Amino acid sequence: MRLEAITWDRLAERLADRLAGLEPADGGAWPRVGFDGAPAARPGDLAERVAEALRVRGRPSLVVGAEGFLRPASLRLEHGRRDAESYHGGWFDTGALWREVFGPLDPGGSGRVLPDLWDPVTDRATRSPYAQLPPGGILLLHGPLLLRHWFPFDLTVHLLLSPGALRRLTPETDHWTLPAFERYASETDPAHTADVVVRADDPRRPAWSG
Q: Does the pTM of the predicted model rise above 0.90?
């Protein structure tokens, strides 16, 4: 894979240019974009930058983090607080994401999206109000392990970290998650599945596939 060096600001501008003309594959009114990456790659930061670049272009968007759709602790921690298998397959409430985020953006949907559902700190529902995404508005969903769920994205961006960089940039207290990302790389192969790949080994010097 050939990658070219770029700054984060310029990357956000280039992605916004691409998204400004993006049409939903299902004929609906709302394009859906996934920013996939381990927490250490900070996919949410890039999603926020792109949202700002789209705002300047007059294109509305909504940034949603998958971490706002964790399952309750009683379910996600059933096999312990450091079980990589559970993190890979059972931490995120994908049913709620389908129901509260993707469903309202189906053709004929309401565009009324719930931005988050569960607070992992309090282990309670967030009770956040719904956000109304106008027709033509773009969903920017970010989080880890997104490409293994068959979400109906119209464009996907994967923030790639080498195994060494992933270990270096992940806090030691979270190293127990590393086997989950190794499995994800092996089984889902996001570096070759995503439409756009961003190498983020050096947070100061990203590179992308264009």
A: yes
